Structure formats: structure tokens, C-alpha cells
Amino acid sequence: MITEPYTLPHTETWSICSRELKRLYKVFVSVPDSPAPDDGFPIMYVLDGNSVFASFTETMNLQTSRADITGKKPHIIVGIGYETTSPFNDNRYYDFTFSPDINFLSYHSIDRELPQAGGGSYFLSFIEKELKPQIELKYHVNKKKQSIIGHSLGGLFVLSTLFTSSASFQYYIASSPSIHWNEVFLNKAKQQFMASERKAKVLITSGELERDHFSQMNEKAKMLNVELQKHTSPVFESEFLEFPGEDHMTVLLPLINKTILFVNDIKQQMK
Fold first, then answer.
1. Which position among 210, 213, 231, 246 bears the catalytic label?
2. pLDDT tens digits along 211-247
3. Cα gap 205→239, rounded to integer Å
4. 248 catalytic per annotation
């Protein structure tokens, strides 16, 4: 019997060191096995790439294999991760938070030291000024159909990016966002965002079993969507989905299916 490592077809990985922070990132890229549309492939940037890139890629490949029938168009998928074999890396605490102040510590003490926080603006700058240009130089990308997807702290980063730099992407998917980490910063940024006309489509999700989390994660996500739906801009949409029977980790797989529907603007199946 001959054994060899398995790799996902039509994917590649490479490393990139951010110029400003000198942080090393591992980038996972999946490109559709089909000719690019005239305006380029839509693209999804997925945070915590080590944990979910493969699942996103295989699901996208499966669901778009009959795009003529389903209406689901193939996307380039870019997973942004770290040089690790673990699903998550502690560098995410710094990269995904926009404020060094960890707000929940005022009402929920923990018995461990947390990693440094507050580097979200630098991480966003890395995505915009370094990663995107390299991706767009190498692949035929539709810059009008860009999505960013993040879970937990990644979901917090997605919302922070929406409120501070909404032109960076057109679709924002925030899964179980850790609003309680940077709640003060997020609320201030949200107020400024709501006062101006923005163009974006937002999907906020949470698992039913997250209702019991000390942070009120589920309730905060739900209430944020209610507030965003008050935004009167005709080019802005927000939606909330709760996944029955799912917790903070199991919520990821149903999230992938809904994300593919969302970025393809397939609304009749979203509920």
C-alpha cells in the first residue's frame, strides 16, 4: 500500500509577512476549476483559515458544481491563517480586536492572562494594502463582490470592519461575534456608521445554545441586527439567523451553507 498526503484540488498555500507588524500569516487559496467570468470571480476572505478553509472550499465546490441549476456561483476563497497546525492561534486576539480594552473583564473575571489585544486596524491595513493586491495580481477578482467571514473574535473583527471601513467589502458575515470584548469601541463606531449612508449586506448569526453564554452573545448579536435594520439606506441590508441546537463550535458547519446562499444573494432559502 502506498500512502501520500492528501491535498484539496485547485488550492495552494503561501506565507506572507506583514510589512508594518512583521507578523507571519499563512494564506490558503482555492480557485474555481472553471473559466473566470468577464468581470472576475467573486471572492471570500475567511478568517481563522486554519480551522475552516477546507470546509468552506469543499462545500463551495459541491454546491456550485451545478451552478446553472442552483444559481450558486463559484468563488475564490482566501483563508487567512497562521503558521500552525492548530485550528486557532493566539495571534488572533491581537489581530481581531480594535481596542486593547477587554470590556467583559469588568463583570466576568478569568484566572488566566489574556494575550495582547487591539491590533485590528493594523490587521485590516494588512488585508487591504498587502494581501488584497497580491491576490488581485495573481487571480481574476471581481472587486465589487468581496465578502469577509469571521467567527467569534473573527465575527467581532467583521463588525468592526463594517463600522470603520465599510467600503472594504460588500458582504459581511459575522458568526457568533464576541461583541463583549470590545463593546465600548464597537458601540461608538456603530453610532458613526449609522449616521452616514453605507452600502453593504450583513449577515449576523449565532447558535441557539449560545443563549446561555455569560456574555449574552446570542442576545447581543440579535439586538445589533435590530439596530442595523433601522439604517434607512436603500443599499444596506442586515439579517440575523439563529441555528437551532448549535453551540459555539458546532455552529460553523451550518454557517458555511448559509454563507454561500448569502453571498450569492439567494434569499428564498435563507430562512
1. 210
2. 999 999 999 999 999 999 988 677 899 999 999 999 9
3. 8
4. yes
